[in-house]
Amino acid sequence: MLTIYGVYRSRALRPLWLLAEAGVPFTHVPVIQAYRLPDPKAPGAPLNTATPEFLALNPIGQIPALRDGPLLLTESLAICLHIARKFGGALGPASDDEASLMENWALLAATAIEPAAIEVLSVYRDKQQDTPTGQGVLKIAAERLKRPVNRLEAHLQGRDWLLDRFSVADIMVEECLRYAQAYGPLLANHPNVARWMAACQARPAFRDVWARRNAEPE
Ligand SMILES: N[C@@H](CCC(=O)N[C@@H](CS)C(=O)NCC(=O)O)C(=O)O
Known about the structure:
The protein is globular. The protein is about 55% helix and about 5% strand. The protein folds into two domains: about 1-90 and about 205-215, Glutaredoxin; about 95-205, Up-down Bundle (Glutathione S-transferase Yfyf (Class Pi), Chain A, domain 2), CATH 1.20.1050.10. By secondary structure, it is an alpha+beta fold. α1 (about 15-20) runs antiparallel to α6 (about 170-180) and α3 packs antiparallel against α4 (about 95-125). It has a four-stranded mixed beta sheet with strand order 2-1-3-4. The mean pLDDT is about 95. Bound molecules: glutathione. Glutathione (GSH) binds near residues 64 and 77.
């Protein structure tokens, strides 16, 4: 049985969405980020990323983590690729070339999209979007996102999904770009990307994990 460590309000949402799409049974251990707790080391504090027993599992102290028998993975996109390849059916690769394509999308998401998208998210989370500093950060992040988003826009012309069907590639890229979604101007001139994101987020499995995420305390 697979075990996923990490609350829904985290990058664990990526493999949790994929598992919901695939209908794979798993055990969920809702480890929470230590920084979200007033005192993560207090007696009775929920299992968190600073709890010794979690650090023994993942010494970097971050979620998600996946245990699959003797295998332990601690990077959300590697976890997604593993689940898709081993249990995902059509969500995963049908050939070595498709596996490479999915890895290509994962690396684009992790390197060209996520870092700038996280900056956008931080501005909105800290309610700084209307301040000069927040505006400055948004402008720089949007500039950094321009090339990957243009690349997605061109790729999605005449296509519903990144590959010839919905797959783990869509989950990984959408989930990284979602962090920047609050910044309207980013997608305003990218109708293909906007349509694709809406289609991803309309999927029943996404709606299910999103509802579970929203049921967790902020
Ligand atoms: N590259 C890692 C990043 C993991 C990460 O930053 N996780 C956050 C939650 S979304 C976390 O555990 N933060 C707690 C901390 O860094 O102390 C991945 O994609 O899995």
